[in-house]
Amino acid sequence: MDHVCKKILDKMISYGHGTNYVCTWDEAFDDFAASLSLPCEDVRAAVRYLKEQGYIEYQMYHSARGTDKSRGFHLSHQGLHWKYYRRKEILDYIADKWADFFAAAISLVSLIISVISLLQG
Q1: Which of 21, 73, 99, 103 has the least CB density, counted as fewest CB within 10 Å?
Q2: Inter-residue contact 54 to 102 (CB < 8 Å)
Q3: Taking CA 47 as the corner, what is the angle to CA 44 and CA 52, rounded to the nearest 5 degrees?
Q4: Secondary structure element (H or E) that encloses residue 94, with its range
Q5: How far is residue 63's CA from residue 60's CA, in Å, rounded to a whole number?
Q6: What is the DSSP string of 25-70?
Q7: At what angle do helices 3-14 and 40-53 cross, to 10 degrees?
């Protein structure tokens, strides 16, 4: 997750409405992007990415033609608590790779010991 996505999530959380706040695709979206000091297209791309990752959900409405259209977007539960889920993802990665980290530490210690013994002659 990059800094644009984090800015979007933090901004939406700062509004204090939890998952109820809906950012619509009209002028409100332009104001939202301006409040982040980012171009609208960068924010749109980040919103699409956040949707794919499950942090944001589209707010749908039923149009007069009988099709569902996106009115805007709002935070999902995962988006509202993104820091927790990000921390959990990192800890899961470390738990999965602990043996690799341990092997790297042993290799580094062995290298240091070898260099020291070579320097001592």
Answers
A1: 99
A2: no
A3: 130
A4: helix 82-120
A5: 9
A6: SSHHHHHHHHHTTS-HHHHHHHHHHHHHHTSEEEEEEE-TTS-EEE
A7: 90
The residue to which tokens 């509004």 are assigned = 15
Q: Residue 40 to residues 37, 52, 93: CA-CA distances in angstroms? A: 9, 19, 33
Contacts of 109 (CB under 8 A, 6+ apart): none
Residue 18 φ/ψ region, left for φ over 0, alpha for ψ in the -120 to 50 degree band, beta for the rest: left
Going residue by residue through the chain (121 aa), what tens digit of pLDDT does each one get?
A: 899 999 999 999 998 888 888 888 888 899 999 999 999 999 999 999 999 999 999 988 776 777 777 888 999 999 999 999 999 999 999 999 999 999 999 999 999 999 999 999 7
Largest pairwise CA distance in the chain: 86
Token pair in block for residue 48: 């699409």
